[in-house]
Amino acid sequence: MQQIQLTENIYYVGVNDRHTDMFENHIELPNGVSYNSYLIVDEKVALIDPVEANFLEDYLFKVKSVLKDRKVDYLIINHDEPDHSSTVAAVLREYPEVQVVGNAKTFAPLEAFYGPIENKKVIAEGETLSLGCHTLQFFMLPMVHWPESMVTYEQSSKIVFSNDAFGGFGALNGGIFDDQVNLAFYEDEMRRYYANIVGKVAMQVVKAIEKLSALEIKMIAPSHGLIWRSNLAWVLGKYTQWSKQESEEGVVVVYGSMHGNTARMAEIVARGAAEAGIKEVKVYDVAKTEVSFIMSDIWKYKGVIIGACAHYGNMFPNMTLLVHEINEFKPKDKCYATFGGMSWSGGGVKTLAKYAEEGKWNLVTESVEVKGAPIREEDWDKLYNLGKTVAVAVKG
Ligand code: FEO
Question: What is the mean pLDDT of residues 91-103?
């Protein structure tokens, strides 16, 4: 059987998930996701981060196809979240003598999820564990993306098993390594993962990158997405850019519209931004595009223009999740503006103003609220100029 090898004795035993509709039950997965796991075969055998429970049979088949009759000695838990850990109990049943390796914060949540673990080994920052020719070393990466998160560095191969850090959405379509695929697709899916999973803790990600930069790294093997061996500088650059929130020139126009009037306003706003020289103008209907895709572009681009029609004195309901996520993840280095239709009550623009105040949005121009449709020249001009003003601010 053809095995997937990172080195002569380090194997990829992860699985692809093309079934799940929503990651964490709220983020769309049109391209699937992979749950990566790694096996190091030496005098001792270490299994690094298991996978999601629905893929147990395929997973154990892969592990056994490498090991044959050998047993797993150590199960390394870099992260407790169930997309990785929900096969822990099954692995322990399969290999009852395995020692589970984690840090001081690993075991309380793990045992809360899966019950008592008898045979455990608690390691500290920088501690090593010899497997024979291979030596594992552990580094804490708190909040990337849970408090107990850590990475495992294998000293002889200089591979860092980085867990969620450097992970991305998108199942692995035959290509497992970064030099076997078209990177543009995985860049988008990696940024969408970043903006919706670890973007909230961007400062911890910066610290994590600084900590890892002290190591000599030949390969980054995350728990989701591609294994990086040929484009390390590129992926480190992208991750640093997203973590430091260095926005690119572009404007996201996102609207919520019941009868198409606020949608018509969005078209005028977008035209104003484009005429002012912005080539990357992304227009989204918040009722059609799932929030994680919009958040990904908001993370990427500097201009963010949000429009919402009124709904019972409040705003278009589907917009609530997006603005909640913006205020939760707090993307920085942005130029905001808002607009919307009044209908008979008003409320869309007023509600956006509350979120803007709460989230301390950098509003670069006054809001535009239009009665009915944008059919009066005065309203058309205001909307066009709103797009133009944001564009000018974006261009700096
Ligand atoms: Fe992939 Fe935070 O789990």
Answer: 97
Domain encompassing residue 267: 251-391
325 C-beta closer than 6 A to ligand 1: no
Nearest to 341 by CA among 381, 383, 388: 383
Q: pTM for the full model?
A: 0.95
The answer to whether residues 191 and 275 belong to one domain is: no
State how many domains the chain has.
2
Query: 79: CA distance to ligand 1 center in Å?
Result: 7
52 lines ligand 1 (CB under 6 A): no
H or E segment and range at residue 76: strand 74-76
Q: Within a domain: residue 396?
A: no
The CATH number of the domain holding residue 348 is: 3.40.50.360
Indicate if the pLDDT at residue 87 is higher than 90.
Answer: yes
Mean pLDDT of 222-233: 97
Q: What is the pLDDT of residues 48-61, one digit of tens each?
A: 999 999 999 999 99
Three-state DSSP at 232 gives helix
Last residue of a domain, one of 193, 227, 243: 243
Tell the residue nearest (CA) to atom 3 of ligand 1. Answer: 81
15 and 133 housed in the same domain: yes
For the segment 104-151, what is each residue's pLDDT rounded down to a tens digit? 999 999 999 999 999 999 999 999 999 999 999 999 999 888 999 999
- Residue having the nearest C-alpha atom to atom 1 of ligand 1: 164
List of long-range contacts for 111-114, beta carbons under 8 Å, 24+ apart: 113/80, 113/82, 113/85, 113/86, 113/88, 114/85, 114/86, 114/88, 114/89
